[in-house]
Amino acid sequence: MLRKGRILGLSILATLILQSGCTLVAVGTVGTAATVSANDRRTVGTQIDDKTTQSRVRSAINDIAGIKDDAAVSVDVYNGQVLLTGQAPTQAMITAVESASKSIPNVVKVHNQIRLAAPIPASSTMNDVWLSSKIKTIMIADNDVPLFKLDIVVEDSEVFIMGLLTKTEAAAAVEAARNVEGVTKVIRVMELVNEN
Question: What's the CATH number where 196 sits?
């Protein structure tokens, strides 16, 4: 009976991790969030700054005419690095989104990966969620990939890896993502740190 309970508990935890869009999984306990936060190479202050910056960038982008109706833009922030993904119908709109992002305090660099295209359909978005789950499943089983030290963003089958990683960890993460069926491209949006 204890074994079944342990397996069930691990299954629930794995499911929550895989369904999360980011590596910080708030499962309703402060302990879990604190554990994940403690494994992050960013300071707690930087983690808070990143969340604040992300909200400010989203707000600035939403103020651009036509964005809400004609484009689909996502914002992720890790250590001051802003990753913009999605689709927009004009180059002028893509440029405006990048400019708005750069104007926000604490933004160190903007990685503009917005594609000139119509927003992807819901079926492609669901496929991205599935790909993200598959990638995280592989990474959680790989001792060379520090899953809780990075963020995985999947947009239209392209994978973006963010984080503060050693060269070895970065190579392992890229290799893990690259070998998932359905992934069309893996893009590094990470900063390298010294090996321990």
Answer: 3.30.1340.30
Chain-centroid distance, C-alpha 150: 8
pTM, two decimals, is 0.82
For the stretch 125-153, pLDDT in tens is 999 999 999 999 999 999 999 999 999 99
Alpha-carbon torsion (67, 185, 161, 23), positive or negative: positive
CA separation for the pair 22, 17 (Å, rounded): 8
Write out the two tokens for 77. Answer: 């922030």
Its domain, for residue 143, covers 120-196
Question: CA–CA distance from 77 to each of 2, 9, 47, 54 (Å)?
Answer: 41, 31, 9, 6
Tokens of 10: 């691990």
User: Within a domain: residue 25?
Assistant: no
pLDDT in tens, 1-46: 434 444 444 445 455 454 544 444 444 445 545 555 778 999 999 9
* In-domain check, residue 8: no
How many other CB atoms sit within 10 Å of the CB of residue 13?
13
